[in-house]
Specification:
By secondary structure, the chain is of the alpha/beta class. Helices cover 28% and strands 24% of the residues.
């Protein structure tokens, strides 16, 4: 990732105002010693300054330019074997990530530690230029194109409740993903405004989303399965009595309401307290335990087990 001019983009803020050059063009490594490194730099307001960086000290704050910062972040997160880290980036970052990947390869990063990334569409002004948040910060709303609706940059100006704003954005993402190639394109603010104006007046009911096997989905849809079993991971800890859960299977959906939540150490303890028939009226306890443990390995069961009482939303319907 070495730039053509050879300057490493390490940014060290001015001690008087905290400002630092974006590209570190005037930042230089002055000397190294046994304690760290001394850098010189130039502040446009306060002139030349010098800063000593010591790994043992908390100060001064040391900043890296965007490419290098991403390299360090993705290199560090890739070493965690128990968590899949996914980077969310704008479409304009696609080419920069090629440089980051090259640097990760040069560092000998194993294939299993290479980062996973999702690129989102880029938002463009009517001229075709990227809609710039920096421009907004520097010059205010007066510098924005006329087609930029206030809610695009300030959620408080949305003509409705915050929940409706969130639901509308979720709908917009779903609309784009009806054809995945849309997610690799750019959209002008005018087109995004048009899409949002065309959204349904009634948004889908917000609910926890759960995928489920067909045999269990059919039991839920007919009201015969009234207890759903999951491991107690982070997402299940948010479920409480009264929550809505939308179960999905092969394009079909059914909406349910949570009637109760009970948590247990493992599946055996769960079945000591829960009705076997409410979990699956077509299988014995032994059969169910075996089936569940084929789905969840021991390390997942070790998170704990949650039994979720469910009932079809009245009247039963799909969303």
């Amino acid at each position: 990732m070495a730039p053509s001019h050879g300057t490493v983009h390490i940014r060290i803020p001015c001690p008087d105002c905290g400002w630092a050059e974006k590209r570190a063009d005037r930042t230089r490594l002055a000397r190294l010693d046994e304690d760290g490194a001394t850098f010189t730099a130039v502040c446009l307001d306060h002139g030349h300054y010098e800063s000593h960086v010591d790994p043992e000290d908390d100060q001064p704050y040391l900043d890296l330019a965007t490419l290098y910062r991403n390299l360090v972040k993705e290199r560090a997160l890739g070493r965690d074997p128990d968590v899949l880290h996914v980077m969310m980036k704008g479409g304009d970052w696609a080419f920069g990530c090629q440089l980051v990947d090259g640097a990760l390869g040069a560092l000998g990063t194993p294939a299993a530690q290479m980062p996973m990334r999702i690129f989102t569409p880029q938002v463009l002004a009517p001229t075709g230029a990227k809609l710039s948040k920096s421009l907004l910060r520097e010059q205010g709303t007066g510098a924005l194109p006329a087609d930029v609706e206030p809610w695009m940059l300030d959620t408080t100006t949305w003509p409705g409740e915050l929940d409706n704003y969130v639901d509308s954005l979720v709908w917009l993402v779903g609309e784009l993903l009806t054809d995945p190639k849309h997610f690799f394109r750019s959209f002008t603010v005018r087109e995004l405004g048009r899409l949002m104006s065309a959204r349904p007046t009634a948004m889908p009911v917000r609910a926890h989303e759960m995928g489920i096997y067909k045999r269990y989905f059919d039991l839920i849809a007919t009201g015969r399965k009234t207890t759903e079993i999951r491991v107690n991971d982070a997402s299940r800890k948010k479920i409480k009595e009264g929550s809505l859960i939308r179960f999905r299977c092969q394009g079909d959906e059914v909406l349910t309401r949570v009637t109760r939540v009970a948590r247990y150490a493992n599946f055996d303890e769960m079945f000591d307290h829960e009705s076997v028939a409410s979990v699956n009226p077509l299988a014995t306890r032994e059969e169910q335990v075996n089936n569940i443990r084929q789905i969840y390995p021991p390390e997942r069961e070790a998170l704990g087990v949650v039994a979720i009482g469910i009932q079809l939303v009245d009247p039963p319907r799909t969303i």
